[in-house]
Specification:
single chain; 5-stranded mixed sheet
């Protein structure tokens, strides 16, 4: 083959992505999927190995190789000196965060049709790191969500089964006694034979197929999150911001926020606007219609003390809780009452004015 033909083939061949073989994790599974969302890597081949010679032939290497060098597309985080974090975050990156940090914006722009340098892409880029990618970085680096000193005396009220994206990916690995390399490995339900009956290449192919399942799981979950934040969360931001600015028109206290559209995801945005407006009174109640149709009933929902808390800043009146319809209207002295939840975090009324009055009466105690 002439040198000219060899160079031409090198330039036109899809780039090869490398990562380690053996037990796989959520971070490199996600990193590989992310890369393949970019035109440069679509299509691209994948090699899973720890052989330095093979890895040296790869265009891009993630989660193996002991090197973080963006200029040569090396994205490992296991080296002793590695301490890189995402801007304004303290969690050390894994291969997931590294690839996302370098390629997240062009991926988001490509999937949404927004300009890469737009404020919307920047907002989505930061939001998706915080709400999705950072947990993968923490999990792979063994970083607890809470300071162990703060939780040493806490006991769980129930088991959550430890179900996380990381655990779901882990489940796709061979079990210890189902690993084809284990001498006691039986034939499994898929008819996979024991290691002695297969070549190393066949064993590696089975493991690679499981890795691709994990990669698809991580990637499709990320794309669903991106679609939500782009199509629902981002448009809601402007609506909630306008309602926040107009809240004093509904009550002089400024503690009642009214949304004229139902189903708007308001919580995340409300806490953001409050954090930037620290001197203003905190919103206690959010009112919104149950649906878009004329004559829809209205809800009055209490704002919780934090985004992830079930404790309301000021619940609806205690004597209303668990009461419905006419009995509730009579107790409250407000027409059109529908219900108040037993915990007092939410209630309903036939009209916007009725829901507003329920909020005002609850503020007075």
């Amino acid at each position: 083959m002439s040198e000219e033909v060899a160079v031409k083939r090198l330039k036109t061949s899809p780039p090869l992505i490398g990562t380690h073989n053996g037990h796989f994790h959520a971070d490199e599974a996600f990193a590989v999927y992310l890369l393949r969302l970019l035109p440069t890597y679509n299509p691209s081949s994948l090699v899973r190995t720890r052989d330095p010679a093979l890895l040296s032939t790869c265009h891009t290497v993630v989660d193996v190789g002991g090197e973080y060098a963006p200029a040569t597309n090396r994205f490992d985080h296991h080296q002793r000196t590695f301490a890189t974090t995402f801007p304004n975050h303290a969690t050390k990156l894994s291969s997931a965060g590294l690839v996302y940090m370098h390629f997240g914006k062009p991926i988001i722009a490509r999937r949404t049709g927004l300009a890469e340098d737009s404020p919307e892409v920047d907002l989505l880029y930061k939001k998706l790191y915080t709400e999705f990618v950072e947990a993968l970085d923490a999990h792979d680096n063994g970083i607890s969500k809470y300071d162990p000193a703060d939780t040493a005396k806490l006991e769980k009220r129930f088991s959550d089964g430890g179900v996380t994206l990381g655990s779901l990916v882990s489940d796709l690995n061979h079990e210890w006694n189902d690993d084809p390399l284990h001498e006691q490995a039986p034939r499994n339900g898929n008819g996979e034979a024991a290691a002695k009956d297969r070549t190393p290449e066949q064993i590696q192919a089975e493991e690679d197929a499981r890795f691709l399942q994990a990669s698809s799981l991580m990637g499709t979950t990320f794309l669903r999150k991106l679609a939500y934040y782009h199509k629902a969360w981002l448009p809601a931001r402007a609506l909630v911001h306008e309602a926040y600015k107009q809240r004093f028109s509904h009550d002089p206290s400024g503690t009642i926020l009214v949304l004229d559209g139902g189903g708007v995801p308001w919580k995340d945005h409300l806490y953001t606007f409050e954090a930037a407006d620290r001197e203003a009174p905190k919103v206690l109640y959010v009112l919104y219609p149950e649906g878009p149709h004329e004559g829809a009933k209205w809800r009055v929902q209490c704002v919780s003390v934090t985004k992830d808390s079930f404790v309301s800043r000021l619940p609806l009146k205690e004597e209303w809780r668990g009461v419905r319809d006419e009995e509730l209207s009579e107790k409250a002295g407000i027409k059109g009452c529908v219900f108040v939840h037993a915990s007092g975090f939410i209630g309903g009324n036939q009209t916007k004015q009725g829901a507003l009055e329920m909020a005002r009466r609850s503020m007075k105690g």
